[in-house]
């Protein structure tokens, strides 16, 4: 099984979907560590429920990105982590982590990239009035939600109902991320 770390800053529903796929035997991986920059994020509780260790840090306690990323790398190496899976980790990955895991960091984003990168992609898409949006899984590079695309899936916007659109996107994310990781780890 591929040893992976999931990085998250929020609810962790993608983390949970990945872990459940692993437990169902659909994904040949093991989540060795959850890394979060938000010690109070709900993902920490989800990780505890699965007895997966968490490394929580606060960027403000470090003088630079390089400094906290070196700390993260120590934690990852201790656990033999091979792949980094970003799942709602709302920080740019720096050169330190990119060089330590070249082409071994993937991200999921709730839009059809390159449209609507950054925060609140679903809200951005709806405000723009698009009729079709979607989900993208891609390799991570130094940009914000850039890097080579691995997979995409489309969702029809539910007119006048942002909540319903969000629900569709999140359900699709869980499916697309699991399937994409499966192919990636088999290749
Ligand atoms: C997901 O929708 C993910 O695509 C998005 O954050 C959410 C995290 O949800 N990521 C980005 O916007 C990255 N720019 P989760 O914590 O429930 O998995």
TrEMBL record:
CDD domains tied to this protein: FMT_core_GART
PROSITE patterns with a match to the protein in the record: GART (PS00373)
Gene3D superfamilies: Formyl transferase, N-terminal domain
Pathway membership: Purine metabolism; IMP biosynthesis via de novo pathway; N(2)-formyl-N(1)-(5-phospho-D-ribosyl)glycinamide from N(1)-(5-phospho-D-ribosyl)glycinamide (10-formyl THF route): step 1/1
InterPro entries listed in its UniProt record: Formyl_transf_N (IPR002376), Formyl_transf_N_sf (IPR036477), GART (IPR004607), GART_AS (IPR001555)
Active site: 109
Binding residues annotated for N(1)-(5-phospho-beta-D-ribosyl)glycinamide, in chain numbering: 12-14
Keyword Cytoplasm: no
Binding site for (6R)-10-formyltetrahydrofolate: 65, 90-93, 107
Reactions the enzyme catalyzes: N(1)-(5-phospho-beta-D-ribosyl)glycinamide + (6R)-10-formyltetrahydrofolate = N(2)-formyl-N(1)-(5-phospho-beta-D-ribosyl)glycinamide + (6S)-5,6,7,8-tetrahydrofolate + H(+)
Swiss-Prot/TrEMBL site (Raises pKa of active site His) positions: 145
Molecular function GO labels: phosphoribosylglycinamide formyltransferase activity
Keywords, comma-separated and alphabetical: Purine biosynthesis, Transferase
E.C. no: 2.1.2.2
Keyword Transferase recorded: yes
EC class name: transferase
Segments forming domain Formyl transferase N-terminal: 2-180
Membership in a protein family: Belongs to the GART family.
Free-text function comment from the UniProt entry: Catalyzes the transfer of a formyl group from 10-formyltetrahydrofolate to 5-phospho-ribosyl-glycinamide (GAR), producing 5-phospho-ribosyl-N-formylglycinamide (FGAR) and tetrahydrofolate.
NCBIfam families from the UniProt entry: PurN (TIGR00639)
Entry protein name: Phosphoribosylglycinamide formyltransferase
Source organism: Ureibacillus galli
Top-level taxonomy: Bacteria, Bacillati, Bacillota, Bacilli, Bacillales
Gene: purN
